[in-house]
Design goal:
The protein is mainly β. The protein contains 1 helix and 25 strands. Helix content is 3%, strand content 44%.
Amino acid sequence: MKVKPVWPPPPAKGRIIWQQEIKDFSDYRVRQGFWQRLGQLLAGRRKVQMVKPYGVYADDQGRFFVLDSGIHRIFMLDRSAGTFRIIPAGDETPLLSPVDLTGDEQGAIYITDSQQGKIFRYRLDDGQLTEFHTVSLQRPTGIAYSSRYKQLYVADTLAQQVVVLGLDGQERFHFGSRGQGPGQFNAPSAISINRRGELLVTDALNSRVQVFSADGHFLAQFGRPGDTTGTFAKPKGIAADSDGNIYVCDALFDAVQIFDRHGRLLLAFGESGSRPGQFWMPAGIFIDKSDIIYVADTYNRRIQIFRYLKKEK
């Protein structure tokens, strides 16, 4: 039996352990009857495989979503029900350049499309994919949902701001402008919300992470450009675990760096390659309530799954 990779390596106490990889969706033992139908969509392939996984999201009902920007669709696995779905189904899709996704507690999935400057909403109950927002966006990329405030946070990369929407699609407020100062951005690209309800934003071309309150007030920042651990070269996806530690994918380092809530480097895991725990342009990352870590390993065409091992109290 192969030993699963763990970070830091022994004899140190492990904090991150590799669980599995998903390259095609037969890994989840979905009922065989689905493959015949889905194979017609994806050029007759016997296995439904990812092309360019970029965004990833998991809800509290055991459903797991992968946004594949290569085929402009979302894969959905319902692990508890053992069912599989492609969103949207059929030969046509209104999605041109999907980047990220999130979901609310009512069973709706929200998808950013950077090329169209739009957000789409997919309802799991009726299978309808429709345009969602009523505001003008220039290049929406990262998106996150706050269940506490029932609102969506959208990184508008070209407008250099974060736009906050209610579930009616109306803008509630926005914040940010071009610059290098606190609360300013140079290509905000990924967004996550920690357990405190604070907003984490990857400020990509400023090579930093900024932290905001739920109402958009600047709280903190950390990071600087560089090519060593603890700095950022090409930061992308961002997420937080149950202890408030902040995870940032770096697509140039091919690694995930972990910082505490004050921005101090704790650990980095991953390196260039295709073996378990190695990456080739990690883009999206999501951490669920059980501290399961999902990473979109984009050019390796797979999702890698890890677990955060909490310290014993």
